[in-house]
Amino acid sequence: MESSCQKFLLTVLTLLLCLSLETHAKNPTNETELDEAEITRRLYAMENRVVKPRYDPVVMGYLKTYLIRGREGTEQMLGRRFIYFPLFEDVLFQNDLPEELKALSIVESALHNRAISRVGAMGLWQFMAPTARNFGLQVDANIDERRDTRRSTEAAAAYLKNLYKEFSDWELAIAAYNSGSGRVIRALKRSRGTNYWAIRGDLPRETANYVPAFIAASYLLEHFEKHGLTPKYPAEELLLTTSIKVHQDLSFEQVATLTGVTMETIEFLNPAYNRKAIPASTKGYYLTLPSKVMEKVRVYLEANRPDGTIKPELYSSIKAPKVRELDASASTLVEESHEVSKGETLQELAGIYGCTEDKIREWNKLDTAAIAPGQLLKIFRPKGRELKFRIERMEAVSLIPMLTLAIQQTTKILENAASKDVAGQEAFQYYVTTRPESIFEIADRFPGATLQDILKINDLPSNRIIRAGTRLKIRKL
């Protein structure tokens, strides 16, 4: 009898231990394992042009939600950033705003393009209708551009730019983004403080927690991997998209029939259209779809134009890099000689060198914008300024220059390193990004190259957004 009881108890204890281990495997990070001292150290070590990260109980509260209580939702949100962040970064760059402001969209909407607050703020950037209209967004029965990714991001950039101009302080500016300038100004007067932390006690509760929420979101973006979070990546068709300007009536049902894309995907990529249709307009509205089907739409629109003048125009999700006018006569400029590679355009070169297409044509006495591979172009750039993007294309690179080794190393080591290097180089090609791109877009450029292989070869910690000017090694097939 005693032996049977012991066996029963042993069985129960074994089952409980298995259940405990299974639970721990599903959620390896729990509140007792969250190292606040280490998080605090990372916070104070972070560099951020918008806020000065610091420890605060509210910051830790948000982090516990991201890292413990809401891990699954956090991983889904981290995956959605691949859809939106390349465009956010581009718009912020075009407006000379800190890239770190993209974390504001996490605080506002957790990157849900149809998010709506209890007071009616809507979209990725949570605009109220009057504010949205003040910044040029269309909000009516047919279209609500608060849910349009590019249009709402451009409006948010303009609003943030205005707020920073008003307060000359990013923490005050983003607080005003949440509550309005008036409340922040009144809090400054009441408290006689000069910064966010000095006036925090005089702000509404939500605004008092807003900068800590931004700090937590910024920490999450920089350190999520250290907490065992794995982004849940969206479907490829949501990542590789193109937009086209449409001038005639076009329903989502027509688009679905024409392309085979599901209504769910069409609605997700085009959330601004309230009636699941694009209305006719002389100015045109954008339709965004997976890139692989857009040619069918372009051909259809071309064949069904309402008049003979307006042609459908294709647009990538990212604009060309911002350029500025240069004068070749200025003593601060230096001359570059650029050999044109296959596929390069004047627009691309203008973005790389920070000038304009017209200037390149003027410097080289070109009658047209047409350029040919192998053609040498004279281009001027500011003295002492590095190129925004390095001029390297995968077609132009055959070998990696051998790294300089220390003189003390033996000739044998040099020869072995050189022979290994050459053997390895023959199997690879190289690609340099000229704009922010997701790893999915890059993998799509090289049929047969796997995403995992690109990550491993380039020692990337996880699938991530690749910054402009990044040089990647791609295996030849």
Description:
- With 477 residues, the chain is mainly α.
- It has five domains: 1-33; 39-227, Lysozyme, CATH 1.10.530; 236-316; 333-388, Roll (Membrane-bound Lytic Murein Transglycosylase D, Chain A), CATH 3.10.350; 396-475, Membrane-bound Lytic Murein Transglycosylase D, Chain A.
- Helices cover 46% and strands 10% of the residues.
- The protein has 21 helices and eleven strands.
- It has helices at 2-26, 36-45, 57-69, 71-94, 104-109, 129-134, 149-167, 170-179, 181-191, 196-199, 205-208, 210-223, 236-239, 252-259, 263-269, 294-303, 346-353, 357-364, 411-425, 439-445, 451-457; strands spanning 241-246, 250-251, 277-278, 285-290, 314-316, 333-339, 376-382, 428-432, 437-438, 465-466, 471-475.
- The strands form five sheets. Strands 4-1-5 form a three-stranded antiparallel beta sheet. Strands 2-3 form a two-stranded antiparallel ribbon.
- Helix 3 crosses helix 12 (210-223), helix 7 crosses helix 8 and helix 8 (170-179) crosses helix 9 (181-191).
- The radius of gyration is 27 Å and the shape is globular.
- The termini are far apart.
- 31% of the residues are buried.
- The model is unreliable at 12-32, 319-332, 384-411 and 420-425 (pLDDT under 50).
Determine the fraction of residues in helical runs and give it as a percent range: 40-55%
CATH class of the largest domain: Mainly Alpha
Number of strands: 11
Largest sheet data? 3 strands, antiparallel
| Secondary-structure class | mainly alpha
- What separation lies between the terminal Cα atoms? 69 Å
Could you tell me the mean pLDDT?
Answer: 79
| Helix count, DSSP H or I runs of 4 or more residues | 21
Q: Flag low-confidence runs.
A: 12-32, 319-332, 384-411, 420-425
CATH fold type of the largest domain = Lysozyme
**Please, how many domains?**
5
Strand arrangement, largest sheet? 4-1-5
Q: Specify the overall morphology.
A: globular
**CATH arch. level architecture of the largest domain:** Orthogonal Bundle
